[in-house]
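Design request, tokens follow.
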């Protein structure tokens, strides 16, 4: 169905077909396997920390951000006040704001209402965002919201099923397995970012982040991940701008040299 929809281009497509195509894209995405393994570990974590099965499923549907969900259950499970846990989750969720800001202009139309964007904004996570940016531009604009809703709901459904399985199998899973599958998420994000980095600024930001963040963490700097990311992005942007200025100056110098009038031997200035 997905291939057929792409071939139809701008032909009339019903919202139901676009939504079903999103579900199919979620099922075929490599991210769904990462999500499934990760949320098996999350369901087991909820079980070990004393949370109920409905809590594990509800937090997956309502929060829909693996790192934020781990933060909230580990914080509440260790006795941290709910207000502090909410602040930590909010700060964690801020990383998704630029993704929402990049995705919504791609999928909305002049006729789109505010409430039409609420569900795709909620469903935006790194996995859904990467796949949406890859696939949505190939689809008719008026059906991209339905497609993104199907894509996101498909991924949330896979995560919810995995959380249930992880919760049920928690007593049979070794603790090391739960920790290992939770590690799949950052590893998949790192591989995806490395694969999709086309520009110099993207590659520099990725390299600086991989270098600086572990150093900050070993130095026990507060908010090491946030500080490493901000500094890495700033350094990459600075290098990118300096390189652009140097290229522009070199191009101007070459143009000036090429445009200078030639002189015959013995002629004065």
């Amino acid at each position: 169905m997905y291939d057929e929809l792409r071939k139809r281009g701008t032909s009339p497509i019903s919202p139901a077909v676009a939504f079903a195509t999103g579900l199919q894209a979620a099922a075929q995405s490599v991210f769904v396997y990462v999500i499934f393994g990760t949320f098996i570990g999350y369901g087991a974590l909820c079980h070990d920390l004393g949370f109920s099965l409905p809590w594990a499923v509800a937090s997956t549907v309502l929060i829909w951000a693996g790192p934020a969900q781990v933060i909230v259950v580990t914080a509440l499970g260790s006795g941290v006040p709910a207000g502090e846990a909410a602040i930590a989750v909010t700060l964690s969720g801020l990383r998704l704001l630029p993704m929402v800001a990049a995705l919504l202009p791609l999928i909305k139309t002049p006729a789109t209402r505010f409430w039409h964007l609420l569900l795709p904004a909620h469903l935006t996570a790194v996995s859904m965002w990467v796949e949406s940016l890859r696939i949505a531009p190939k689809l008719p604009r008026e059906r991209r919201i339905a497609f993104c809703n199907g894509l996101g709901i498909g991924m949330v459904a896979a995560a919810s099923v995995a959380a249930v399985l992880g919760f049920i199998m928690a007593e049979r899973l070794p603790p090391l397995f739960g920790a290992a599958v939770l590690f799949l998420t950052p590893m998949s994000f790192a591989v995806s970012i490395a694969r999709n980095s086309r520009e110099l600024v993207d590659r520099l930001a990725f390299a600086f982040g991989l270098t600086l963040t572990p150093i900050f963490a070993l130095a026990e700097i507060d908010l090491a991940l946030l500080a490493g990311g901000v500094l890495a992005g700033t350094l990459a942007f600075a290098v990118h701008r300096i390189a652009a200025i140097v290229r522009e100056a070199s191009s101007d110098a070459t143009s000036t040299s090429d445009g200078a009038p030639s002189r015959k031997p013995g002629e004065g200035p």
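Comment from the thread starter after seeing the answer: thanks! DSSP finds 14 helices and no strands in the chain.
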